[in-house]
Amino acid sequence: MIQIEQLRYVRLGTPDLEGACDFATRVMGLQLVGRDEGQAWFRSDSRDHTLCYVHGDAADQTLGIELRDVEALERAEQELRAAGLRVSRGDAAGNTARRVQDHVTAMLDGGLRVDLVVRPLHSGWRYFPSRDAGITGFHGVALRVAEPATALAFWTGLMSGRVSDYVGRSAYVRIDSAHHRLALTESQGSGLLEIQFGVEGVDQLMQNSYWMQGSQVPIVHGPGRRPASQQMFLSLRGPDGMLFGLVTEGDRITADDHLPRQFRHAAHSLCAWGSRSDIPEWATSN
User: Fold this and answer.
1) Would you say the CATH fold of 135-270 matches that of 6-118?
2) Structure confidence by residue, pLDDT tens digits, 232-263
3) Which residues contact 50 (CB under 8 A, 6 or more apart)?
4) Are residues 185 and 144 in contact, defined by beta-carbon separation less than 8 angstroms?
5) pLDDT digits (tens, 9 = 90+) for 23-53
6) CATH code at 6-118
7) Domain spans of the chain?
């Protein structure tokens, strides 16, 4: 089993790098820490970066995951190959672009890339946001999965994730004490659905909600509270159709014998406050 230390970053292709950079700084309040002709890196916490936009095809999506050390990376590469996945070892240029010592990339069904990385850069300077959105860090992601059973086999069989709860055939997966860092969301397609950043508290979540409305940023779900995790959330539409979420609070799970609960695939299982969404994966009826 491949032990996940933490989610590290998301790399997104975009045909409009200028527009994506504007959204990341002006709307999300992330800190631009570097840019060249083809890509731009953004901070949300003490990590060197947690979001990178790369000029190119919007279908190019990569989730970066940190492993313990080079030995763990080499073992992971062997396990991924043995599982029949398409795997490539990173080169010097790829390591530089990702700001890591070394990495291995695996291609999942549907086209999502997963980078397994070791010794990614941290910053010695405190995070300084471009807008006071109250962001505390990169929290997690929601993934579109066409075959939930296959996705679960990867994230909880090959990787070290553990199921916290189910909603229909979708699943919340944890890698630490947080209720979940991955939401495996049943969908017609596969790939990244939402990138989620934590905020300081309820006040900051609601302040962002009002700011987004006043700035005409499309809110697609929330504000609301997820019944399974008690996490408060606000979801908005970003460049190239990617969703960005702001989250706060939420349950912690420390017991090894935690028993996942099964919720119905219904609106009241996705938001305890009754927030509705036109996003297909979240558009349900009670």
Assistant:
1) yes
2) 999 999 999 999 999 999 999 999 899 999 99
3) 8, 9, 10, 42, 43, 44, 137, 138
4) yes
5) 999 999 999 999 998 999 999 999 999 999 9
6) 3.10.180.10
7) 6-118, 135-270
CB burial readout 78-90, b (16+ within 10 A) else e: ebbeeeebebeeb
Return the structure tokens found at 194: 């939402």
Which DSSP symbol is given to 122? B
* Nearest partner of 72 among 116, 37, 9, judged by Cα: 116
Burial 52-61 (b: 16+ CB within 10 A, else e): bbbbeeeeeb
Protein fold of 135-270: 2,3-Dihydroxybiphenyl 1,2-Dioxygenase; domain 1 (3.10.180)
What is the distance between the alpha carbons of residues 65 and 118, in angstroms, rounded to a whole number?
9
Q: Is the pTM of this model over 0.90?
A: yes
Q: H/E element holding 18?
A: helix 17-22
Burial class (CB in 10 A: 0-12, 13-18, 19+), 286: exposed
Q: What is the DSSP letter of 217?
A: P
Q: How far is CA 207 from CA 55, 93, 250, in A?
A: 31, 41, 19
3-state SS assignment for residue 99: coil
